[in-house]
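Worked Example 4.2. Consider the chain below.
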Amino acid sequence: MANHASAEKRNRQRITRTAKNRAAKSALRSALKKARAATGAGATDVVKAASIALDRAATKGTIPAKRAARTKGRLAAALHKASQAQPKAETA
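Applying the procedure from the previous section yields the following structure tokens:
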């Protein structure tokens, strides 16, 4: 229990910040799940949306910037690998 006004304020700020970060992380996890599922189909727009969500979360301090960069790199690598694995139709 907070005994000072400043401690009470910090507690209120903590509660607000935690709720905001929890919602942002949940949305980010959903975007990443969709992107990982779509990499097999080669859906670049879904991966791009996840990349934007990662950048937004890193900018706001919800996740560390290096984690966002690492995750974006892994998504891009998975998308590239999936696009290389798909057989290309030959044009004659």
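Helices lie at 5-38, 44-59, 65-85. The chain is about 75% helix and 0% strand. Compare this with Example 4.1 before moving on.
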